Amino acid sequence: MTVYGGAAPAASERRGGPRVLFALVALLLVATVVIVQGYTDASFSPDGTGQASAASGGVPQSVLSGGPIIGPDGSQRLPTMTVALTFDDGPDPTWTPRILDVLARYHVPATFFMIGSAVARHPELARRVVREGHEVGLHTFTHPDLSVLPAWRRDLENSQAQLAVAYATGRETSLLRPPYSSTASALTDRDYAAVRAVGAQGYVTVLDDLDSEDWTRPGVDRILRNATPRGNGGAVVLFHDAGGDRAQTVAALDRLIPALRDRGYRFATVTGQPNPAAGAAEVWRGRALAWTVRGSDGVVRLLWLLLIVAGGLIVVRTLILFVFAVAHARRRRAATWSWGPPVDQPVTIVVPAYNERETIGPAVTSMARSTYPNISVLVVDDESTDGTADAIPQFGNVRTVRIPSGGKARALNTGTALANDDLVVMVDADTVVTPDAVDNLVQPFADPLVGAVAGNVKVGNRKSLLGKWQHIEYVIGFNLDRRLYDTFGCIPTVPGALGAFRRSALAEVGGLSTGTLAEDTDLTLAIQQAGWRVVYQESAVAYTEAPATAGQLWRQRYRWSYGTMQALWKHRHGRFGRTRITFIALFSVLLPLLAPLIDLMAVYGLFFLDRQITIIGWLAMLFVQTVTAILAFRLDRESLRPLWTLPLQQVVYRQVMYAVLLASALAALTGRRLGWQKIRRTGDFSAAPSG
């Protein structure tokens, strides 16, 4: 399709930079939200599952054999006959309340080492912990192994957790339990280095004397044995209130607490003191952090929902394409198929041209030499400045008219008005038609209800990688989909590169409109609104020159996307019916808008979810795309050789198309106007490509 020249747009319309920047900023914001959510939605193993390495000489013996509470004054133990119940990995909306209920029933205080991101998501649970007299400690923000983190990341983990606690409870804490920690005797040199580093910042590291191992869910009896002190010594006992099913933990506590009391044990928090109040600045900073976490959670939940919608649309589209596109091809290629009596009435080909010196010669030659018996070619030169008129070949059935510059729609309307025939074929000036294209294109007019016919447009300059990608897109996205739309009687676009019209249909709708940028889509929908049929003729083949650079491709597709949205909105009511417009919008606008989620969530999954499952899922979508591509190429009788570039197209080219669609959608929503943009043509093909 020629991206037309015409009147120069205003400066604000010529500059695509702000719109591109707007789209990139929007993409960056979404990506940032996803990264924040992935960072805070830590998937981790419970404490104790990490494999401890043997300590070497770097950990003092006094620490290795000392108590589980390591502060600036050395290691400490709890007094004899004293137990501190501690809980890691919460708060959890299911299990933390149930554990708190057990503690409240026995009036037992405990210490909860909380993950900051969980506190940000469930601040009401952290408030309840403090309100009911329990102590709060930090368990980092996302549960990483502090011993392997760089200093800046370790500081960030602890400071963010502190802010989350300050926001939720109005308190601060100096207690810290490193994730994946165990007893003091299991400290390695690397672990101890982390303990010393956080100690220098004022944190007291709290390990444990007894690990209930409730994270393995070994059974209530085993948990009781693991959590019961031997002799009369004090003990810090490790439990979990999150990270999985904690029903056994709840049941074990209900038996452990009375059993230890019967032995004379008392229960206390680690420090025996309430958490001190946090400063107002920390509370407000924590509030901003919590809003960021919960906001990213909401956005990602929405993205997952939209991903499901996109996946459903892809599945539905694939299924109906296989069913209806194949049926369409078989029906049209059957020996018994006929549009009716052969059509041989005169045809005028209207060729709008604006600065098309490089392509006009091969294009007009291919039309003038058409095998159709009664044909004339009318070139409408829209005041070209590059000598286009001089490059038009001289044939007896070719004439040229030069008009003041007014844009493509005006040029086509002028050509239609000057045409002498009832059938008008419109062909872009960068398009080469096959010898029988016009003959095949007009045959559907044997049906008096047909008002327009869409031809089968292919990419001619497909030698480069960009050309091959556009070739794949044309065969799959345009021609295969057009079979489906033809089946349902709702073809959205008769391509400007090759389309045929009844003059009466054009007259009824007032010709081409200048109110939208996709004049071909606007005209096609208007003709169907008027009650005419629009059909697809696969045997009418033309080859067009696709944009040769990324910048030209962006400008072309931006106009197409923007204009299509304009046309769909313009024709959302009327005889054509909301159902058909909705059907077109689902697969032409909504699905392409949602499709980026597949790649976005795939990247998210590679970093934050199960990589194997993520890769399998992405490859499954690629398989669907490949099968669809093979079907499309077989139905279009094209060589499969270009499909070797399909995986790379999905990774690179598709992202550019996503950005184009997003930019045009944002422009449409904000009411921006887009001026005509000229694509430079090279004229590097003149016949059907070989592969």
Q: How much β-strand is present in the residues? A: 5-15%
CATH homologous superfamily title of the largest domain = Spore Coat Polysaccharide Biosynthesis Protein SpsA, Chain A
Secondary-structure arrangement, i.e. CATH architecture of the largest domain: Alpha-Beta Complex
Secondary structure tally: strands: 18
Name the shape in a single word: elongated
Query: N- to C-terminal separation?
Result: 21 Å
Our Rg estimate from Cα atoms comes to 35 Å
**Number of self-contained structural domains:** 2
Please mark out the parts with pLDDT under 50 across 5 or more consecutive residues, or reply none: 1-25, 49-55
How many individual helices? 22
Walk me through this protein's architecture.
The chain is an alpha/beta fold and 691 residues long. It has 2 domains: 61-278, TIM Barrel; 305-670, Alpha-Beta Complex (Spore Coat Polysaccharide Biosynthesis Protein SpsA, Chain A). It has helices spanning 11-14, 17-40, 61-64, 95-106, 116-121, 123-131, 151-169, 189-200, 220-227, 247-262, 280-333, 360-368, 408-418, 437-442, 465-487, 503-509, 519-529, 550-570, 578-594, 596-608, 611-635, 646-670; strands at residues 69-71, 74-76, 82-90, 111-114, 135-138, 175-176, 204-206, 210-211, 235-240, 266-267, 347-353, 375-381, 398-402, 423-426, 431-433, 450-459, 499-502, 533-544. The strands form 3 sheets. It has an 8-stranded mixed beta sheet with strand order 13-12-11-14-17-16-18-15, sandwiched between helices. Strands 3, 4, 5, 8, 9 and 10 form a 6-stranded parallel beta sheet that branches. A 4-stranded mixed beta sheet has the order 2-1-7-6. The chain is elongated. The relative contact order is 0.11.
